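REQUEST FORM: STRUCTURE PREDICTION
Request ID: SP-0412
Submitted by: Lab K.M.
Chain count: 1
Length (residues): 273
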Amino acid sequence: MEHTSKYITPEIKLSCYEDKLFKSEIVFDHHMLIWFISGETKIVQAGASYNFKTGDIFLIPRNQPATIINYPKDGLPHKTVVMLLSAKRLSAFYENVKVTTAIAPIPKICSFNNHPLLQSCLASLIPYFEIEDLPGHIASLKITEAISILRNIDPDIDSVLANFEEPGKVDLVSFMEKNYMFNMTMEKFGYLTGRSLTTFKRDFKKTYNTTPQKWLTQRRLGLAHYMITEKHKKPVEVIFEVGFENLSHFSYVFKKQFGYAPTNLLEGKAKRV
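STATUS: Completed
RESULT:
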C-alpha cells in the first residue's frame, strides 16, 4: 500500500492512498473534518453506514467507533484534506461563544455534501501543502474559519463541537451489543465504557462469564454467517465490516467455529465435518 501524507500543521493534512483498498478501525480522539478530492470511503458505525465520494464533506465526531474502508476510484487515488478539530482548539473558540443548543450525548457523522463555503475553505488549503515553514497563526485562522462556517450552516453543530465531556460509565451489555464489530483494543473498549482495563475485564467476565476476546470472536462470526447466508454477501465483502483483519484468518476461525468454510455457504455445501 502506497500512502502519503503532507502536513501544514499536525492539525491539517493532505492524505493520499494509491492502493486498491485501505481499511482501518478508528476511534478518533478529536473531531475530524474531511473533504474528498477523489476516491470513495465507506464508514460503518453502530447502527449506521455511510458512503462518501468526490466533493463530499463530512465531520466524524470523536470517541465514536468506526470501520473506515477507503477506495481509489476511476483511476484516481483516495485523496482527502483532513482537519483535526481538537478539544483544546474548540474550547478556546467557545470561551466567548454562548451555546444554546443541547449537547448531543452520542453524535453521528455530520454530512455537508459539497457545501460551497466549506469547500472553498478547505480547497484554499491546497497551496499551503507546498509551502515549508508555514506560520502557525495562518493554520489557526483556517481552522477558526472552518468552525465558524460549520456553525453558520448547521445551527445544531454546537451540540457536537461544544461537548467536552469524557466517556462516562455506561451499560456494558448495551455498548458491546452495538459495537462488537469494531476491532478495537481492550483498553479502548474499556475507555469508551468508562472503565479501566482491569475493571472492564472484571465486569465483562461477571456479565458474560467468558473473556472479551472469546465473546467478540463468536459474535463477529455469527454476524458474518448471517451476512453471507441472508444478505448473500461474499466472505471478502464482510470480513472488514465484522471486525476481522484478513480473509485467511477469518476463514480459519469460521471453519473452526461452524465446521465448514465460509465459501461453502455460497455453494450450498455447509455441512459440519
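NOTES: Residues 136-153 form the longest helix (18 residues).
Reviewed by: T.R.
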